[in-house]
Specification:
It is a single chain. By secondary structure, the chain is of the alpha/beta class. The protein is about 40% helix and about 20% strand. It has a 6-stranded mixed sheet with strand order 5-4-1-2-3-6, with helices on both faces. It has a 5-stranded mixed sheet with strand order 9-8-7-10-11, sandwiched between helices. β8 and β9 form a beta hairpin. It is globular, with a radius of gyration of 20 Å. The two termini are about 25 Å apart. It binds 5'-O-[(R)-(carboxyoxy)(hydroxy)phosphoryl]adenosine (KG4) and zinc ion. The site of 5'-O-[(R)-(carboxyoxy)(hydroxy)phosphoryl]adenosine has 19 residues, from α7 and α8.
Length: about 350
């Protein structure tokens, strides 16, 4: 089954072609145009600007994805598109494009929830059929799985019992993990999006200088809260300023590491707790924050501890290629393959408030 995926929920315009066969999905092409540099100038995404950029990029991105995959619209079996959640102006560009392709070329549409799409990045095998590890990916991911989606807008833990079978266990009560990275980065004068910059600076930091709280780390539920962390960093910055200390590069690095450590501790602890409680065989990381190498490394260490150190269970860890953690259409096409509700162009509308 050849599927064209389209993703335009926020500030990335992406189109991808995948080939799905039985229990494997191969990536044929994945084109991403980002308007990040425009949002960096305003310190965050202004929805009108994002929508305007989507309109500019969508057609060139779709044709590039088709030509990179050496295919054309007539050969597609379906078009999978993100229909929510996201910014309405941005979502509409992708949904209307998919509807037009569907109408003109008589192709079915598969509506995809962006958050579920992130999880399915774990099921995408990259191009080379020679890559044995990735080739067998689907076969390796066993259910039940615990999926952690950590993006700019969401921090959610889900129990995945099978394809399309999700139960939300918990989510953030206020800021998402990526949002916390971005807002704290702004406080430290770092460019948007701050996650990658905080990761870079944390590598040069002194780990002993600052320690911030780990919000809700011990709570009985699977919820998260990161707004208090932002306040704690703000207070530390104000303390430094009250002592007439300027935010030197070294101090920013140390604050960056303490921020990252707090977020990593909370995310790993709660995810492993959920994995243990539900007897998960796999943990699936996803979302932009899952591109963070320190987070991946910590998960990798904790999930490979011998049974007994972290409870009586063993669990396999999966994380998508870093390029598939942030928004992309490959994950949308892949989610479409595994959950193909084939609709006609008339039956789909964008839903910015869509949840699970
Ligand atoms: O999934 P994504 O591309 O967009 C949403 O659906 O929100 O996630 C973007 C978020 C941003 O908040 C960004 O700062 C964060 O992911 N991010 C990172 C890293 N790369 C992106 N956070 C920490 N470390 C990274 N390396
Ligand atoms: Zn996303």
């Amino acid at each position: 089954m050849t599927i064209l995926g389209i993703e335009t929920s926020c500030d990335e315009t992406s189109a991808a072609v995948i080939e799905g066969e039985k229990r494997r999905v191969f990536l044929k092409s994945n084109v991403i145009a980002t308007s990040l540099s425009i949002h960096a100038q305003t310190g965050g995404v202004i929805p009108e600007n994002a929508a305007r950029e989507q309109i500019k990029h969508i057609l060139p991105v779709v044709s590039q994805a088709l030509s990179d995959a050496k295919t054309d619209v007539s050969q597609l079996d379906a078009v999978a598109v993100t229909y929510g959640p996201g910014l309405i102006g941005s979502l509409l560009v992708g949904v209307e494009t998919a509807k037009t392709i569907s109408y003109v070329f008589n192709k079915p549409i598969i509506p995809v929830n962006h958050m579920i799409g992130h999880i399915y990045a774990n099921f995408v095998s990259e191009n080379s059929k020679l890559d044995a590890r990735r080739y067998a990916l689907d076969a390796q991911i066993e259910f039940p799985a615990i999926a952690l989606v950590v993006s700019g807008g969401h921090t959610d833990l889900l129990l995945m019992k099978g394809h399309g079978d999700f139960e939300l266990l918990g989510g953030t009560r206020d800021d998402a993990a990526g949002e916390a990275f971005d807002k704290i980065g702004r406080l430290l004068g770092l460019p948007y999006p701050a996650g990658p910059e905080i990761e870079k600076r944390a590598k040069k930091a002194n780990p002993k200088r600052f320690r911030f709280p780990r919000p809700l780390i011990g709570s009985a539920d699977f919820d998260f809260s990161f707004s208090g962390l932002k306040t704690a960093v703000l207070r530390e910055v104000q303390n430094l300023e009250a002592r007439h200390l300027t935010l030197e590069a070294e101090t920013i690095n140390d604050l960056a590491l303490a921020t990252q450590e707090s977020i990593i501790d909370v995310l790993t602890k709660k995810t492993l707790k959920a994995a243990e409680k539900f007897g998960a065989k796999s943990i699936l990381l996803s979302g932009g924050v899952a591109a963070n190498q320190s987070l991946r490394d910590r998960f990798s260490v904790l999930s490979s501890l011998p049974a007994g150190r972290q409870g009586q269970f063993s669990v396999k860890l999966f994380a998508p290629a870093k390029s598939l953690c942030t928004d992309n259409a490959a994950m949308i096409a892949c989610a479409g393959f595994y959950n193909s509700t084939l609709l006609t162009w008339k039956d789909i509308t964008a839903n910015p408030e869509l949840y699970y």
